[in-house]
Amino acid sequence: MNTDQFIAKSTLKFVETASFTWQTPSNIALVKYWGKSNPQIPKNASISFTLNNCHTITRVDFIKKEKSDEVVFNLFFEGKQKDEFKPKIAEFFRRVQSYCPYILEYEMTINSENSFPHSSGIASSASGLSALSLCFASMAQSLNIPHDEDFYRFASTLSRLGSGSASRSIFGNLVVWGKHLLIDGSSDNYATPLSSEVHQVFENFQDTILLVDKGEKQVSSTVGHGLMNDHPYASKRFEQASENLSKMKAILSSGDLDAFGNLVESEALTLHAMMMTSNPYFILMKPNTLRIIEEIWKFRKETKTPVYFTLDAGANVHMLFPEMVKNKVDTFTKSKLVGYCKNEEYICDQIGQGPKQL
Ligand code: DP6
To answer: pLDDT tens digits, residue range 149-196?
Structure first.
């Protein structure tokens, strides 16, 4: 399916003022997206699970104005005007303008807040841009563009244009973004919830996020994706990611936790290996990232507890495990891992149901 149908011809209804609020979670990829082409098309399909507690709440107020050539908007983050965030949002508006031409006819005020500490290194672009996209999709819906049945796909298309991984935050549970032969309905343009059978061991799956480094990343994801263009291992990596997604689909249905752990840990280390072998090369892991990984491996070996790690484009460690071992893992976290976290901070999260309109 292509997304031309979403390109709005004109606004179909007159709306003087409107206001929409969405709460949207972050997500953690199991098979990673790393490498893209224009306009925000992934080089390989990825799969993530949507989180529950790490979320952004965004309200957008629209007030009708004379149509102009420029997008007019105000931006507040956690109650404070944040002009430094404006260029990223302005770029998002440029990309979605053909889908939401009404943005030139309204003055918009965006108010956003995160449930997780600012600069915690948690990818706020996934939750932030998906929440914003849902507000814009709601506005499009109130102007009668596009059809209701396509609402979430439309929101995911907008969200992808803001940030690739944000396309997956539009849906709950397990979500695929990128065309893949084994995933029904999958597309490069928007994400799709995984519709195949998932073993009950993954129900309420847990993610404890160990906050190793809370500073600004030295290399943004966007730059990192760009470095995949001339990367010597790129084509092999994209092939491997696609095979890994097929394997992950089978693992999610069989409930084989050892195979799950082997695949997610390999995906995390491959992602970082891509960063270390780009030119320019870079390292986002910190000494404590490695210490935590070693502790997880030791604990798993000694206690036979099914607990695994993954990483996103940063130093924090996501520790993944089934709900049935939660007490054991919580005790392990408190006794062995908090010391490696900045200010002893970590976040207990789990798989979630996706966005909510407030
Ligand atoms: C390592 O979605 O942040 O977290 O599309 O440039 O905004 P842009 O990149 P972004 O990249 C996320 C990369 C990742 C892996 C993943 O979430 O699949």
So the answer is: 689 999 999 999 999 999 999 999 999 999 999 999 999 999 999 999
Q: Which atom of ligand 1 is nearest to the CA of 162?
A: 7
Considering only residues 125 and 322, tell me which one the structure prediction assigns the higher pLDDT.
Answer: 322
Q: Is 253 close to ligand 1, i.e. is its CB under 6 Å away?
A: no
Q: What is the best residue among 28, 33, 189 to mutate for testing ligand 1's pocket, by most ligand atoms within 8 Å of CB?
A: 33
pLDDT digits (tens, 9 = 90+) for 53-97: 999 999 999 999 988 888 999 999 999 998 888 888 999 999 999
Q: Best mutation site among 167, 209, 221, 271 for ligand 1, i.e. most ligand atoms within 8 A of its Cβ?
A: 221
- Calculate how far, in angstroms, residue 155's C-alpha sits from the geometric centre of ligand 1: 17
Q: Using an 8 Å Cβ cutoff, are 309 and 317 in contact?
A: yes
At 4 the pLDDT is 63
In whole angstroms, give the CA distance from residue 7 to residue 17.
Answer: 22
